[in-house]
Design a protein that fits this description.
84% helix, 0% strand
């Protein structure tokens, strides 16, 4: 049980880092206003990372609440 808790903590921390990276990319996209294509692509990648992190975290929480079923 302790190993499972440790792995869940590491998994969650990695997903939070992915989400924060997405936020950072979204912020950085505003600094590329003179390059609209690069700004748009950076914004899309940032949004995709945030959505992925959210979905995986939500799924992980639901998996834990349902007892691993």
């Amino acid at each position: 049980m302790d190993a499972q808790l440790g792995m869940d903590t590491i998994f969650s921390a990695m997903l939070y880092v992915v989400g924060l990276t997405g936020l950072l990319l979204m912020y950085r996209s505003t600094k590329n206003a003179y390059k609209p294509r690069q700004a748009y692509m950076t914004l899309i990648v940032g949004v995709a990372l945030i959505i992925l992190a959210y979905l995986f975290l939500e799924n992980s929480i639901m998996f834990k609440l349902n007892g691993g079923q």
